[in-house]
Amino acid sequence: MNRISVLADDFSGAAEVAEQFRRHGLATAILTGEDGQFAGGSVEVIVRDTHSRNLPAERAKAAVARAISRNADAKTMLFKKIDSLWRGNIGPELLALREAGWRPVIAGALPPLRRTVSGGAPYVDGVPLGQSGTWALEPAGAPQSISDLLPGLSTAVLPLQKVRQEGLAPALREALETAEAVIVDGETEQDLAAVAAAVRQLGFRAGGDRLVLVGTGALAGALAAQLAPAACRPEAAPQIPARGVQGTGPRPVLVVVGSASGAAVEQVGQLRGASVAVFDVQTAETGPETVQEIQHTLRGGSTAALTVQPGVQADPALVVARLADTAAAVLSGVPSTDLVLTGGETAREVLDRLGLTFLRPLGQVQHGAVVSLASDGRLIASKPGSFGTPAVLLELTTMLRRMRSMESATQETGASMNNPSDTRPYIAVTMGDGAGVGPEVTVGALLDSAAYRAGRPVVIGDVHRLQLAAAVLGVTARIVEIGDVSEAVFEPGRINVIDPKLLPEDLPWGQESAAAGNAAYHYIRIACELGMAGKVQGICTAPLNKAALHKAGHIYPGHTELLAHFMGVEEVSMMLSTPKVKVIHVTTHIGLIDAIAKINPGLVERTVRRGYEALQRAGVPDPKIGVCAINPHAGENGLFGHGEEEEKIIPALEKLRADGINAVGPLPADTAFFLAGRGDYDLIVAMYHDQGHGPVKVLGIEAGVNITVGLPVIRTSVDHGTAFDIAGKGTVEIGSMIEALRQAVEMSPSPAA
């Protein structure tokens, strides 16, 4: 495959895009500075931060021109990352590309954050960019259309109707015959995938010119998925020391927040609520007493945060410089500190002061919230200022600490990772139905380079079947049978398997089988027994087949009921997760009339408590929960319905609030999801199946994950079935299983000491 070169105008955007390629199995490096060079190992994707977002237009144009002359030979595929809110020097930078012989194809939607393009104009949450509130801190007016940003280029717009019709590639070629740049409408991940496929179909060329894809991390993800569909090559994980450079304790974490967005302010509030020491930086130079106080906090292995003093009106560049100067002064005395950096400009200024020019992405906790390993061994978490849920900074600090604990045992002994200092949770991964795609997605997820960085997954399944799955995927894996979780060794390319020997070796792919149904049943049983014994802290399940389960004599509707049975739990809840919000359901798979009849104050209260406790276990200290009403407009004072809100929901909320749970409602469902989409709530409680599922599908389940809460341990699952039609063919997309495993790790506690 030809090398891919990516240009981004700030560091957090560079990391966002780099992670999209990494998670699809492509070896990826991030370079900063014009002289930054790739250091060591093979690489397929180079992402370069030109640091040009806030430069004067001519300097930004020159920076891109220099970068393209260095990084795009005749065989290179070029991707230009732009800001999803259309900030920065987009016009001058694309003009530089055009003058170098490239024609931009601009598809700037970011569906996970509901940032779309319609009629060639930018929208946020369905309203024009300038009316959305996301542009409030910008000095100039928001663009009415994307062509307004491109005064030096002739443009054409491909409307959504054409994007969703067959023949997009010819339509794109035709538009490029008369336009120097084409703006493509988009609202969904599928729209972006269609654009990436069309450009690839054209061979990244049109009319004698080369094409450059221009867009957000979502477009990069669509391209990466098409370039590396198997996405399951094992990658040697870098060594990440568990402790500080003197080996005296866990590494501290310094959070530097250089964004004044409402989202960032709320995220800092969550840090304060978790008792993190937060220091407000003045526009004047930070005094030595404050620097020493921060260093003292960090030397104890704790987390500290630097942020902008609330209400300060100052030149943003000056504020960023003060933050970076303060961070550098602090880090000079505590050099083994890991970092969480919010805001691309802030991130780059801090990295420059530390002399860091080369990083590798390792994983993400939410879209755009990425953890990378720097050349000096430091872990660097970064995110754009407006991205993330209120708890994202807490999630990133937790991720850093878990990743630090990863190799403590192997570095010291080379043996199994049972060292008490290793805080990563154990996760039981059930293989699912052996005749379906379960073995393939299990192998793919366990070979992902991030599989062992924050968790310790052990497969419950069949060794021979997993070996067959690796063969059809075309990957190399060391699949090792173990007798107990304590025997597991976690190394890249190795998969630890507890095998109850239940599948015949000649089991055919893609056929319903009592043997496979029975084996899947017992894989769940073993996982539950491990959970009840405290040997695993979470469960992640590949799909089983209900008909095969029933054929084997196990009459259960599915995974959820099986788990509840084995763990002796009468009532559990389904939770769905999106990049913006998590949704838990009071009722699920029953008719609407039956659902309303079933809802009562006790059930509502128990559901909210289950969601509250699950989020607390995941590191959200005080979740804010929005509770949907049953009727339109929450009944509108009796105008709609028969008083269901007053009878079934309000008594539960009163009791919950009396116990200190921040539960708000009953809210009109449309309002609740709008507010959740902009980050006002950590969790939404839906009263019935479609009330929760419909908005979640729009907000976008990034890779399709169900979460079961109310069990003694968290359980996550892929959101697809056994797919008998493609089983054993090596074509299954494993992203959902990777995401399910990631969320199982994220929501599971550390093992008990």
Features:
alpha/beta, 4 domains, 36% helix, Rossmann fold, twelve-stranded mixed beta sheet, 753 residues, Molybdenum Cofactor Biosythetic Enzyme, Chain A, globular, Isopropylmalate Dehydrogenase, 16-stranded mixed beta sheet
What would your notes on this structure say?
Helix content is 36%, strand content 20%. It is α/β, with parallel strands linked by helices and 753 residues long. The protein folds into 4 domains: 4-227, Rossmann fold, CATH 3.40.50.10840; 253-404, 3-Layer(aba) Sandwich (Molybdenum Cofactor Biosythetic Enzyme, Chain A), CATH 3.40.980.20; 419-573 and 713-753, Isopropylmalate Dehydrogenase (3-Layer(aba) Sandwich); 580-699, Isopropylmalate Dehydrogenase. It has a 16-stranded mixed β-sheet that branches. A 12-stranded mixed β-sheet has the order 22-23-21-20-24-31-30-25-26-29-27-28. A 3-stranded antiparallel β-sheet has the order 6-7-8, with no helix packed on it. The longest helix is centred in the last third of the chain and has 19 residues, at 514-532. InterPro entries: 4-carb_acid_sugar_kinase_N (IPR010737), 4-carb_acid_sugar_kinase_N_sf (IPR037051), NBD_C (IPR031475), NBD_C_sf (IPR042213), PdxA_fam (IPR005255). This is 4-hydroxythreonine-4-phosphate dehydrogenase PdxA. Its EC number is 1.1.1.262.
